[in-house]
Every structure is written in structure tokens, then in C-alpha cells.
Write a structure and sequence with these properties.
Number of strands: 10
CATH topology: Rossmann fold
Shape: globular
Structural class: alpha/beta
Number of helices: 8
Radius of gyration: 17 Å
Helix content: 40-55%
Order of helices and strands: HEHEEEHEEHEEHEHEHH
Strand content: 15-25%
Largest sheet: 10 strands, mixed
Length: 231
């Protein structure tokens, strides 16, 4: 069975780190709850599962360990979400992608889905790169297009289980944009309110991300939907 036949038969698992990434994908694909931090549905005849992993490689690895790899093992795993730009010509809403494990048919489908996509290295980081100089220096040193915190765990898991894996990430923060040095402890309103009260100097940086987050979420949802329809 070819890679594309396997994907069609066994379906796709999408991973997304936070509710800001997972919720718009879930709504755009009309997925239904399927357990804690999981949603499922169908795109045409293909099954689709969305797994919210939490931020960082350890959280992603823990979430992936919950997947049942019985007879219904996925034919493709996709690390979907946001990333920070490491190159100055990337803008909020731009799509970057990398084959985490060999998946040439999936990459071809992504390119043919009427989506503007730039393939290249997506750098892993254990911490959020908050300052423009950090991002630009990382880009110069590694040649990577963007940086995020979960795809390394997806790559390791896919290699262990011999599955094709693709990262598709939409740029949230451009290389010149400074981010807050810390993030809210949770994703709910109370966590955001406590963060604003305790770190008033960081609040303007976080607030500056809101319009970018909306643009990035819309671009991510459209890219994921068009890609799945093109598979």
C-alpha cells in the first residue's frame, strides 16, 4: 500500500499545543469531542483526530502516548499550530512546513492544495524565544525558517512507530516582534486576568499578539482544511 493509500485508509492525527490553535481547527473541521483533549470527525471518507498536547516537547510526548495504535493506527500525523519566525521576510499568517519523517505524498498534497507554503527546517526550542535578537540569531545560526516547541516530540514518536509525519506551522510572531518573557499559567480568562494583574509590564506585549493570533488562527484553519481535502 502506498503512503497516500495508507493515509486514506487509516486517517490522520493532528496535534496542536494550545486551545488557541486547537479550537479554531476543531470548529473549522466540525470535529466532535472524543475524550479528554481529543476531537474526531471525517473529511470526506477520511477519519481525522485532533489531539491537544499542551506546550512543549514533554507535554506533547505525554499526550501522544495516549494514542491507541491498534488496528486503526493513523496513516499520517501532522504537527499543526503556530510558530515564531526566524527569518525577517516571513509574516504573520505565512505557512511553513517540514517533513518530520519521510512523507513525500503528504508534502506534495500540501503544495498542490492552493496554499502558499514554504518548506524548510523548523527549529525546536525548549523555551519561547522572546526577543528579536534571539530569533534572528537562531535563524542565522541554524538556517531554520521558524521555531516552535512540540514537533521534535512528534518526530520522535513518529519514528518510533514508523509513521509518516509532517509539520505545518503558521507564523504568529514575526522575527522583529518581541514577546512577553513569561506566559499565562493557563488558557482560561482567570489565568489571563491574574497574569495581567501580576505582570503589568508584560501585558502590552501579550495584547499586541491578539490581532496576530486571530490572523494566524484563520490561516491555520484554512491551511489544515485545504490540505486534508487535497490528500
Amino acid at each position: 500500500m502506498t503512503e497516500v493509500e495508507t493515509v486514506r485508509a487509516a486517517g490522520v492525527v493532528l496535534t496542536a499545543a494550545t486551545r488557541w490553535e486547537a479550537s479554531p481547527i476543531c470548529a473549522g473541521l466540525r470535529l466532535c469531542p472524543a475524550g479528554q483533549g481529543m476531537w474526531s470527525g471525517r473529511i470526506g471518507s477520511r477519519s481525522v483526530t485532533l489531539l491537544k498536547t499542551g506546550m512543549g516537547a514533554p507535554s506533547a510526548a505525554s499526550a501522544l502516548s495516549r494514542l491507541d495504535l491498534g488496528p486503526g493506527a493513523p496513516g499520517l500525523i501532522v504537527s499543526a499550530g503556530f510558530a515564531g519566525a526566524l527569518q525577517s521576510d516571513l509574516r504573520t499568517g505565512d505557512l511553513v512546513a517540514e517533513q518530520l519523517t519521510p512523507c513525500p505524498q503528504a508534502a506534495k498534497s500540501l503544495e498542490s492544495a492552493a496554499i502558499r507554503v514554504r518548506f524548510g527546517r523548523i527549529q525546536h526550542s525548549d523555551v519561547v524565544l522572546t526577543e528579536p535578537r534571539e530569533k534572528l540569531e537562531c535563524g542565522r545560526r541554524t538556517g531554520a525558517l521558524a521555531v516552535e516547541m512540540e514537533s521534535a516530540a512528534v518526530r520522535a514518536w513518529a519514528r518510533e512507530h514508523r509513521l509518516p509525519a509532517l509539520a505545518m506551522r503558521v507564523i504568529l510572531d514575526e522575527a522583529h516582534l518581541a514577546l512577553p518573557r513569561s506566559l499565562p499559567a493557563g488558557e482560561d480568562f482567570l489565568s489571563l486576568a491574574c497574569y495581567a494583574a501580576r505582570r503589568p509590564l508584560s501585558w502590552p506585549r501579550l495584547a499586541a499578539l491578539w490581532p496576530r493570533q486571530r490572523r494566524a488562527a484563520a490561516a491555520l484553519t484554512a491551511a489544515v482544511r485545504d490540505f486534508l481535502e487535497a490528500l
